[in-house]
Write a structure and sequence with these properties.
SH3 type barrels, alpha+beta, 3 domains, 15 strands, 339 residues
Length: 339
């Protein structure tokens, strides 16, 4: 049985091509139903249960296995569970926890197909608002759309939450997180291209006025290019490590001399004054570096490696790839806005 294997890695020499300059463009939610999209995921663990509802306590209705493809047809209230069916089937199979599968689509574009399971707050959704945001970092849920407003709670990184309303310019979003409603600052989530189509909330405080310092576009773009040049080869390395560890899991004997560990992206407060977005993007990039180094660390000890350690190393590479991928997309959007 595959899960009983001991994996042996011998010899030396993992070669990684670091290719500069490439970046990746994926369209965000646009509210259009003209071209239906098939969302696909691949099982990324040895086996997993599919459940009757988006909860670990829900009844098991099926099992899926490593490498199996599933069609994703919906999400739950915080986007941590996907409703799936087998490809080509007309009936849904059930719900799978999203960490059990590998996926590259934007979960905020999925239909919200369960508005009940997991609600713990006092205000469950009465209807699907039709808008959602995928958070790229954790964020404080506040009583009003301002930083000094009372704190109501927090929403974790990578949650996908329904958006009910916005402030005047879309810089704050009024969301429902598992029954708790409040305001989050919009830049913590993936950009919503049609953000001004979201209904504006009533009785809003006036927007704050600030002194604006104009930074030349070429200065801002230089920071965008520098960060992209840093992220791109590490994104390629994360993909290489994903494939490497998958081949090891499949029983192949491979070389094990790793590249050197990766240093974090360095920047100064002067850089942030010229490009404030660095304070949002760089921490996520450097978190990706942490995952990348964790994956590389498993290569340090050649010889017999337990399958669980190999799976963890691949999972670390997957997490690094996701963070770098999101960073490249954010930089692409930012470059377009600056130009």
């Amino acid at each position: 049985m595959r899960h009983n294997l001991l994996v042996r890695i011998v010899i030396v020499g993992l070669v990684v091509a670091l290719l500069p300059g490439a970046f990746f463009l994926v369209h965000a939610q646009d509210g259009s139903d003209d071209d239906p999209v098939v969302f696909q995921a691949q099982v990324d663990v040895f086996s997993s249960f599919v459940r009757a509802a988006p909860s670990r306590e829900a009844d098991r209705v099926a099992s899926v296995f490593d490498g199996e493809y599933l069609e994703v047809v919906g999400r739950n209230l915080d986007g941590t569970w996907f409703e799936v069916r087998r490809p080509g089937r007309l009936t849904n199979l059930g719900w799978i926890f999203n960490e059990m599968v590998d996926w590259e689509f934007e979960p905020e574009r999925l239909p919200l197909t369960d508005m009940i399971t997991g609600v713990v707050g006092p205000t469950p959704l009465a209807e699907n608002p039709g808008f959602a945001v995928h958070l790229q970092s954790g964020v404080v849920l506040r009583e009003a759309p301002m930083r000094e407003a009372a704190r109501l709670g927090s929403v974790p990184r990578f949650a996908t939450v329904p958006v009910l309303a916005r402030n005047q310019d879309g810089s704050w979003l009024y969301v429902n997180y598992l029954g708790y409603e409040g305001w989050i600052i919009a830049f913590t989530g993936r950009d919503i291209p049609n953000v001004l189509d979201i209904p504006q909330a009533p009785n809003l405080p006036p927007l704050p006025t600030i002194n604006v310092v104009i930074i030349p576009p070429e200065v801002q773009l230089s920071h965008v290019y520098a960060l992209r040049d840093f992220v791109t080869p590490r994104y390629e390395l994360a993909i290489t490590l994903m494939d490497f560890w998958q081949m090891v899991l499949d029983g192949e004997v491979l070389p094990c001399e790793p590249p050197a560990s990766v240093v974090e992206f360095q920047y100064k407060q002067a850089d942030v004054r010229e490009l404030p977005e660095l304070d949002r993007y760089v921490p996520q990039v450097n978190l990706g570096v942490e995952y990348l180094n964790a994956s590389l660390a498993t290569l340090q000890n050649c010889g017999v490696v337990q399958p669980d350690d190999v799976r963890q190393a691949r999972a670390d590479a997957v997490n690094a790839r996701i963070l770098f991928y999101e960073g490249l997309r954010a930089l692409d959007d930012l470059e377009a806005n600056i130009q």
